[in-house]
């Protein structure tokens, strides 16, 4: 699953509205995934997938 184990951040639909001859073309949508990476938690020796924002926050807490 592409969900952060800490903050439960998941994918969402994002798109670009292209202007074509005075009309917007709403067909350009794609799924945007979070930046998930494997990280080892400090208190438990378990590896989980966490987003980059949570990894930065964990690094600040351990200092």
TrEMBL record:
Q: Name one GO cellular component term.
A: ribonucleoprotein complex
Top-level taxon of origin: Bacteria
Question: Pfam families in the record, alphabetically?
Answer: Ribosomal_L28
Q: Name one GO molecular function term.
A: structural constituent of ribosome
- The keyword Amino-acid biosynthesis is annotated on this UniProt entry: no
- Alphabetical UniProt keywords: Ribonucleoprotein, Ribosomal protein
Annotated family: Belongs to the bacterial ribosomal protein bL28 family.
**Protein name (record):** 50S ribosomal protein L28
Q: What is the phylogenetic placement of the source species in the record?
A: Bacteria, Candidatus Sungiibacteriota
């Amino acid at each position: 699953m592409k969900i952060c184990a800490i903050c439960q951040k998941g994918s969402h639909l994002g798109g670009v509205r292209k202007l074509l001859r005075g009309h917007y073309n709403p067909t350009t949508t794609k799924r945007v995934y979070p930046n998930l990476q494997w990280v080892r938690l400090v208190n438990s020796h378990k590896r989980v997938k966490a987003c980059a924002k949570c990894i930065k926050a964990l690094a600040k807490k351990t200092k």
